[in-house]
Amino acid sequence: MCRWLAYTGTPVLLDQLLYKPAHSLIDQSLHSRLGVETTNGDGFGIGWYTQEPEVHTPAIVRDVGPAWNNRTLREIAEHVRSPLCFAHIRASTGTAVQQTNCHPFRHGHWMWMHNGSITGFHGLRRELCMAVDPVLYLAMEGTTDSEAMFFLALTFGLEEDPPGAVARMVGFVEQVGRKHGIEAPMQMTVAVTDGSAVWAFRYASAGVARSLFYSTRVESLRALHPDLEYLQELSDDTRLIVSEPLGDLPGAWNEVPEHCYGVVQGGQGEMHSFTPLAV
Amino acid sequence: MCRWLAYTGTPVLLDQLLYKPAHSLIDQSLHSRLGVETTNGDGFGIGWYTQEPEVHTPAIVRDVGPAWNNRTLREIAEHVRSPLCFAHIRASTGTAVQQTNCHPFRHGHWMWMHNGSITGFHGLRRELCMAVDPVLYLAMEGTTDSEAMFFLALTFGLEEDPPGAVARMVGFVEQVGRKHGIEAPMQMTVAVTDGSAVWAFRYASAGVARSLFYSTRVESLRALHPDLEYLQELSDDTRLIVSEPLGDLPGAWNEVPEHCYGVVQGGQGEMHSFTPLAV
Amino acid sequence: MCRWLAYTGTPVLLDQLLYKPAHSLIDQSLHSRLGVETTNGDGFGIGWYTQEPEVHTPAIVRDVGPAWNNRTLREIAEHVRSPLCFAHIRASTGTAVQQTNCHPFRHGHWMWMHNGSITGFHGLRRELCMAVDPVLYLAMEGTTDSEAMFFLALTFGLEEDPPGAVARMVGFVEQVGRKHGIEAPMQMTVAVTDGSAVWAFRYASAGVARSLFYSTRVESLRALHPDLEYLQELSDDTRLIVSEPLGDLPGAWNEVPEHCYGVVQGGQGEMHSFTPLAV
Amino acid sequence: MCRWLAYTGTPVLLDQLLYKPAHSLIDQSLHSRLGVETTNGDGFGIGWYTQEPEVHTPAIVRDVGPAWNNRTLREIAEHVRSPLCFAHIRASTGTAVQQTNCHPFRHGHWMWMHNGSITGFHGLRRELCMAVDPVLYLAMEGTTDSEAMFFLALTFGLEEDPPGAVARMVGFVEQVGRKHGIEAPMQMTVAVTDGSAVWAFRYASAGVARSLFYSTRVESLRALHPDLEYLQELSDDTRLIVSEPLGDLPGAWNEVPEHCYGVVQGGQGEMHSFTPLAV
Question: Nearest CB to C79: which of B59, B78, B79?
Answer without folding.
Answer: B59
